[in-house]
Automatic annotation (TrEMBL):
<dbReference type="InterPro" id="IPR053161">
    <property type="entry name" value="Ulvan_degrading_GH"/>
</dbReference>
<dbReference type="Pfam" id="PF22666">
    <property type="entry name" value="Glyco_hydro_2_N2"/>
</dbReference>
<protein>
    <submittedName>
        <fullName>Glycoside hydrolase</fullName>
    </submittedName>
</protein>
<dbReference type="GO" id="GO:0004553">
    <property type="term" value="F:hydrolase activity, hydrolyzing O-glycosyl compounds"/>
</dbReference>
<dbReference type="InterPro" id="IPR008979">
    <property type="entry name" value="Galactose-bd-like_sf"/>
</dbReference>
<keyword id="KW-0378">Hydrolase</keyword>
<feature type="domain" description="Beta-mannosidase-like galactose-binding">
    <location>
        <begin position="695"/>
        <end position="784"/>
    </location>
</feature>
<dbReference type="InterPro" id="IPR054593">
    <property type="entry name" value="Beta-mannosidase-like_N2"/>
</dbReference>
<dbReference type="Pfam" id="PF17132">
    <property type="entry name" value="Glyco_hydro_106"/>
</dbReference>
Length: 818
């Protein structure tokens, strides 16, 4: 914030991050703190570079990577951006076409970083812009790992000074000669040409030149292409690490998952795996190891985000092909700052003052275990899906500047409306593994001997470049099966010499006639008959990604619905043995399996909210023999949530008088009490309703009739707000922080009589902030936007009602019937 930093506080913060299990940090200078203006360090000044060097060196000492934005705030811009370099739009006045400034300034700029936004289409804008960084880094030896480019967010820019010349050179005619067609809302071809030109200029003059400069300086690049008017697949592919974004909360039908009721879906949209797959597809097709994500931005309001809400969002990213998580967002905050420290205006806060800081390492362990596998394996997808961006460009754009901005927030406004989006949703929900491919990528794509991407689907499309049609024909001769959905394309893209080109286009199309053009209704039979692998259990709400580690197939599976709990599932890949790896607990086991009709079936138990890896034909779980399941259900279908197998589980709620003691937290410790019925501690007293911290529940109980100490039992804590550390008879059995809140109890942990259970529960900081904002709201002392809530209104927690805290319902023991 304002680059108001000291070397000692940087070290203190980095040391804490390393202890918490983070892998690195990312530097984005933004607006500062009120009253500390004189202490702000100007961006790229010698003192700023000294602090950067200290950060990089300390990162190396602690094993932390360090990345930085090529600028302050976002998007690129600053004091060195002169009007000739700044973002522009076209203006048509009195028959004259003019290039005028948008006058957009850098958003959330830091000291020394304010100024106009850079023209993303100009041929010399990036070379001039990075001269400032050339000077600053001229004598710097300790470099950050990566340069970073945040999401596009250049609003209203739709032109550059040399646009007309570039357009004529690339499209073959003068745009001004067709100005009426361009501005006519019913005419498509000239609009396509206009967008095509913008897209090419953006890729060549902005993304590529920035990436090339970064690599020359010794940096890798992380690039968020989304939000731009270009072809996202081509733009992501230009970077070393394509990066998507997960903003807001998905509406997963996971049992017990809550979402912030103040989050405005209509305003901000929700995360969508199809949008994420643009970044991962670009990485998969170009062989990039890392695909990253700006993750959990505005997952819930400030002080209300729980670890149990974070995990499903990360699991969605993993299934979409992301393997390099960046949490968002955390500000530098000095050690002596009063609680809650310096905060970013957008949640989620992953900083040292976060209410989940004590348990943060458990989230990081989970992510690290997942990423270790996902980063060291390759995609195992059968299908390529062509992205017909020209059909989108042919439609009327609603964004400022009259151009299509392909954002990740409102995919319903562009992606899901296209037949392309509808096809992608169908494939995702029906268990076919796929990647997207662009026109340019098709030209580079070569089928390999392994048969990867052996089928290419072309969604129902109107406009197709002739070069793409020709390439599709070449690919069929190479053994790739090309399937046009619903119908053949209607005409080639581009206005220039359209009549002559269309005649040649139609002749080529005739070579494709006589084939079937399936709809979504007939696609499943067509794909399976072509021996494309289908994971039919995806229809049960199990989201997955299938990868290959060496020659072994690996599945990451997340249950993000309530349709499935346990049962036999049929894998599309044959296997002789199947190991289960649970990244949450780091435990492994062999799973029961069988061959039915030549297909490999495995018995999987995965409750709503859980995730796992299936490791085919590896040594995972070799230490114990696979159990022999005899489920009382059909072998052909998985068990649904209220299926017969669950009826074979006996459960009993722990009965007795619970002692509740408040042991650590703010603003002070409420009095201890007893409970015969568990409920939110926020409802017990006024003081408890403001408490944020940890409370201890304890109970002495006898093992219920029908339960044996020698059994392997499960403890289900029900609705936990928010994290529970559990001890049984003096033995720590685990911490549960994600849905479902369950822990396995090792055999012989319990006794028939006089068992003592101790459960320490840590809640959110929201209830304390209700009091803090009433009594001491001066912590909100930040410049510019200061603090806003999830609806971007001035933040005021004093208006909130108490959030449920502690153990909100029954704690139960479970055991499988013999």
């Amino acid at each position: 914030m304002g680059s108001t930093v000291t070397s000692s506080d940087i070290t203190w913060q980095l040391e804490n991050f390393a202890k918490a299990g983070l892998g690195g940090v990312h530097i984005i200078p933004i607006y500062g703190v009120k009253g500390l203006e004189k202490e702000a360090i100007s961006y790229l000044s010698p003192q700023w570079m000294q602090m950067l060097t200290h950060t990089v060196r300390e990162g190396k000492r602690l094993g932390l990577g360090v990345d930085m934005t090529t600028g302050t705030g976002w998007p690129f811009g600053g004091p060195n951006v002169t009007p000739d370099m700044a973002a522009k739009k076209w203006q048509y006045t009195n028959g004259q076409l003019q290039s005028v400034l948008t006058k957009q300034a850098v958003k959330r700029a830091a000291t020394g970083g304010a100024g106009l936004v850079l023209d993303p289409f100009a041929v010399d804008a990036i070379p001039k812009y990075v001269q400032r960084f050339d000077s600053a880094f001229a004598t710097i030896k300790d470099l950050p790992r990566a340069m970073y480019n945040d999401s596009y967010e250049v609003y209203g820019a739709n032109w550059t000074d040399d646009f007309l010349n570039e357009f004529k050179k690339r499209r073959g005619y003068d745009l001004q000669s067709q100005w009426g067609a361009f501005t006519d809302t019913t005419t498509a071809l000239v609009k396509i040409d206009y967008h095509q030109t913008l897209s090419e200029l953006l890729a060549e003059n902005y993304a590529k030149k920035w990436t090339d400069w970064s690599r020359q300086k010794g940096f890798v690049t992380r690039y968020q292409a989304h939000g731009s008017p270009g072809n996202l697949l081509d733009l992501y592919a230009l970077s070393d690490i394509p990066e998507t974004e997960s903003f807001g909360s998905s509406r997963f039908p996971i049992k017990g998952l809550r979402v912030d009721d103040q989050y405005e879906v209509d305003r901000y949209g929700t995360p969508n795996p199809l949008a994420m797959k643009f970044a991962s597809s670009a990485a998969h097709l170009t062989g990039k190891k890392l695909v990253s994500s700006e993750s959990t931005t505005w997952l819930a309001n400030h002080f209300k985000v729980s670890l149990s809400q974070i995990k499903p969002q990360l699991d969605e990213l993993f299934t979409a092909g992301i393997n390099h998580i960046f949490y968002h967002g955390t500000t530098y905050s000095p050690k002596n700052a009063d609680y809650p420290g310096w905060l970013f205006y957008a949640s989620t806060n992953y900083g040292i003052n976060s209410h989940f800081w004590k348990h943060y390492p458990r989230l990081n362990q989970y992510v690290e275990r997942c990423q270790t596998i996902l980063q060291n394996s390759q995609p195992d997808n059968d299908l390529l899906v062509y992205f017909p961006i020209h059909d989108l460009w042919a439609t009327q754009a609603r964004a400022s500047g009259g151009i299509h901005l392909l954002e990740v927030h409102h995919v319903d406004k562009w992606l899901l409306k296209l037949p392309f989006g509808q096809l992608g949703e169908w494939l995702w929900n029906n268990g076919f593994a796929f990647d997207f491919v662009s026109d340019n990528q098709l030209q580079q794509f070569k089928p390999n001997a392994s048969g990867k991407y052996k089928t290419l689907l072309v969604p129902a499309t109107t406009y197709l470049p002739e070069t793409t049609l020709t390439r599709l024909g070449e690919l069929t001769k190479m053994g790739v099966k090309v399937i046009f959905m619903e119908h053949l394309p209607k005409q080639p893209t581009g206005f220039h010499e359209q009549k002559e080109r269309n005649e040649a286009f139609q002749k080529v199309l005739q070579t494709w006639t006589g084939q079937s053009f399936p709809s979504l209704q007939g696609l499943e039979i067509l794909l399976t008959s072509a021996n494309l692998r289908q994971e039919t259990w995806a229809k049960e709400g199990l989201k997955y990604i299938r990868k290959v580690q060496g020659s072994k197939v690996v599945y990451f599976i997340a249950n993000q619905d309530q349709k499935f709990s346990e049962g036999w599932i049929t894998l599309s890949t044959p296997a002789k043995k199947i190991g289960l790896y649970q990244p949450l607990t780091d435990k492994t086991a062999l799973l029961p399996m069988k061959i039915e009709g030549g297909k490999t079936q495995v018995y999987l138990k995965l409750l709503s909210g859980e995730s796992c890896f299936l490791m085919l034909d590896t040594n995972v779980g070799e230490g114990s023999a696979a159990p022999a399941y005899r489920p009382a259900v059909s072998n052909a279908k998985p068990v649904r949530q209220r299926g017969p197998v669950l009826a074979d589980i006996k459960t009993t709620a722990l009965q007795g008088t619970w002692k509740l003691e408040f042991i650590e937290g703010k603003p002070y410790l409420p009095k201890a009490t007893t409970l015969t019925q568990l409920r939110s501690w926020a409802s017990l007293s006024d003081s408890a309703s403001y408490f944020s911290g940890t409370a201890r529940y304890s109970l002495t109980f006898d093992l219920p009739k029908g339960f044996s100490p020698t059994q392997k039992l499960t403890l289900d804590l029900g609705d936990v707000r928010e994290v529970a550390d559990v001890t049984l008879n003096g033995k720590k059995i685990g911490t549960t922080w994600s849905l479902p809140f369950r822990l396995d109890i090792p055999a012989n942990t319990l006794k028939n009589k006089q068992n003592r259970i101790v459960i320490e529960v840590t809640n959110l900081s929201a209830n304390y902030m209700r009091l803090r904002d009433t009594q001491q709201p001066e912590w909100k002392k930040f410049q510019e936007i200061n603090m806003v809530d999830i609806q971007y209104k001035p933040f005021n927690a004093a208006r909130w009602t108490p959030m449920p805290s502690g153990l909100v319902g029954n704690v139960t023991l479970e055991a499988a019937k013999n």
